[in-house]
Amino acid sequence: MPKTLIGAAMAMALNIPMTAAIAESADIAELKQMIRQLKHQHEQQMRELEERVQRAEARAAAAEEKALGTAGEVAIIEQRAQTRPGTGSNAFNPAISLVLQGGLASYSQDPDDFHLEGLPLGGEAGLQDEGLSLWETELTASANVDNLFFGQATLGLHTDDGAVELDIEEAFVDTLSLPAGLGLRFGRFYSAIGYLNEHHTHTWDFADAPLAYQAFLARQYRDDGIRASWLAPVDTLLLEIGVEALRGDSYPGGGNDGDFGAVRNLFAKIGGDAGQDSSWQIGLAHLDVDVAERTSGGHSHDHGGDGPVFSGDSGLTVFDAIWKTSLSGDRALIVQGEYLLRDEDGQVDLAEEAGNAVFDYDGRQYGWYLQTVFQFNRRWRAGLRYDRLSANNDLAIIANDTGEADDDILAESGYQSGSHDPHRWAAMVDWSPSEFSRFRLQYARDDSREETDDQVFLQYITNLGAHGAHRY
Amino acid sequence: MLKSFTRLLFTLGSLALSMTAQANVQIFACEPEWATLAKELAGDRANTFAATHAGQDPHHIQARPSLIAKLRSSDLAICTGAGLETGWMPMLQRRARNPKVMPGEPGYLEAAGQVERLEIPAALDRAEGDVHGDGNPHVQLDPRRVLEIAKALSSRLQTIDPANKAHYLQRVEAFSRRWLAAIQRWEAQAHALKGKRVIVHHREWTYLLDWLGMQRVGSLEPKPGIPPTLSHLADLKELQADRIIVSPLNDDKPSTWLHEQTGTDVVVLPQTVGAVKGTEDLFGLFDEIIRRLTTGDGA
After folding, report:
1. Which of A246, B66, B91, B283 is disulfide-compatible with A225, CB 3.0–4.6 A?
2. Rounded-to-integer distance, Cα A349 and Cα A120, Å
């Protein structure tokens, strides 16, 4: 198109001087007339072109309008769909779920005498009450607070010697939209140490806690504090690193003396997939505790006095790993294990009616469990678990005003180790008629003490209300 | 030990940075059908990840670590919604630390929320099984609803990635044209199915039957999500049905038993893309469903 225009212009430019050379006035007039005609024709063509462009533009605009119409239509659809949920005053109520747990426990040895050699039990550690009883009733409410926070609280109801205890198991707030994969949690929560510790007991695969959890975490460790963690922007692998500063009021802490963070936890988790149907996660955590006057039941708590009191430093390192494979027909295999290593150093006070005794305590202890659960179909699962604990404690009497022999004092304290490593085998089978109920039968051959204890549990777990999403 | 750990972190960090540098929209699809739809509508402007495959039941998925990692770096998550992913998606959203894909944001789209849902229960009671308060969530099996969802998904893509608005518009227009033509074809092929009586395993076929004008006379599951029981199956023997419809995920024992008792043919239908051969995209999925339903193939 520009080529022809240029060509025409050139021809005109060449033509005019040539015709001027021939030079007859009539001819000139004729030429002028021709040029006018050309000019007119050209103008008309330009106008036509312009009109065509305008028409094309209008068509494009119409097309865009139509396209916008598609989006507008979509907006209407979304609006229609979104106006459906109830708008009453209770529409913002938190998701509430109630977990009812209970069961039957039977032991061949006296459950009140349960102890682990060299590892005095603290806090909530110990066996379930013998016979038929409620184990735990948990009420959980959770919701987004606003666009920035999520909150969750779990209230636990327990019966202790006939009295009902209300316990705030957890009450925490999570940030939702910090940038760069950062997150904060504050309030009371289960510390990110080990795999099972962060899971509520009703999601555990066995009716009781592993021995290592009994010994080192008093079943499960939760405390008041703050957690900061970071989720790395890795595409296919979970990599989370975090720190916690906790109050230290509950075992393995021993009470808070006003410091911020008597307990510090450093943790990392890595997890991913292995093929289409398997996934895994490993975790490493180190809990550093300034222990101030931590009490424990000791070996014989009916002896009078308050039992031994420990002050010093405690370091607990936990390594955990889990593997899950799902197979066709709702079958699945879960293998999981944890290794806990504890180093404690400090002094233990023992108050007796006749006077006090004090001894140095330097302990190096470890415990682990390995368990596997196989799911046969949606309803039936079976599992096997092995537990082991070992303590190696160095004790040295500093002062003894009790009138008893030093060796007797050490033996009574529960801190003496050496002759027996607690271990246990457990097998379970459970049946889940729906996602909301589960019944479990578990047998354990427990060699925690010198004499074997045959333990049988029949447990029920039911979940009412909101269908909570479960952690991995 | 600490040194090598720091080095590992550094390597992972730089790897991550190089990954986030890509310009394409990262789409996280809870189910394979939405992954396919997203690919159809975004073309080469998006990287699509499907959190589940056809061999998995989206009701029962673990909030596993790799999914948290994937959601962390996503710009848009499309899920079925209506409670289908309630056991895992909220946990992923809370743990992924990604404000873009939280409920209510443009980066989170629930497919079932874009269409009219069926079987919204008048009263909620778990005694009725695994019912969803927002109605039956299996909306991917009605192509008319799929089209509405496609438009909503495209509109979200345009919001999230305005630079490529024209591209998405052109693709959704092209898809709509091909899809409408396909719907006409399928409806013509399935004409004879209208009014046919079927027994289904799970109620995931509700929207398919609604579209084709077929009638569900019973379910092998006594209540949604509750595995079939013998006494319930015995009751179904009395029903007059033309077909028993199951998915490849369902246990085949109950349907086989009922077939042996009543002679009613069993048809295995793909419930999503990739469930059986030849269903690699949404067109193939409905082609195969209609083919199996009309020929009785896939027994």
Report:
1. A246
2. 13
Cβ–Cβ of A276/B53 closer than 8 Å?
yes
For residues B45 and B178, membership in a common domain is answered with: yes
Q: Are residues B196 and B254 in the same domain?
A: yes
Intra-chain end-to-end CA distance of chain A, in Å: 68
A-chain residues near B74 (CB < 8 A): none
Q: Which of A78, A232, A467 is nearest residue B12 as measured by Cβ atoms?
A: A232
Query: What is the bridge-based pairing of β-strands B108-110 and B76-79?
Result: parallel
Q: Verify that A292 and A200 share a domain, yes or no.
A: yes
- In chain B, the number of structural domains is 2
Phi, psi of B119 (to 5 degrees): 55, 40
Backbone angles phi, psi at A367, to 5 degrees: -155, 150
Closest CA to B216 of B243, B238, B183, B187: B243
Asked if the ipTM is above 0.95, the reply is: no
CB-based contact, B115 to chain A, within 8 Å: yes
**In Å, how far are A92, A209, B157, B160, B175 from A80, measured between CA atoms?**
20, 50, 20, 22, 24
pLDDT tens per residue, range B189-233: 999 998 999 999 988 899 999 999 999 998 999 888 888 888 888
Residue B160, min C-alpha distance to chain A (Å): 13
Length of chain B counted residue by residue = 299
Q: B179 with B162, same domain?
A: yes
> Distance (Å, rounded) from C-alpha B93 to C-alpha B102?
6
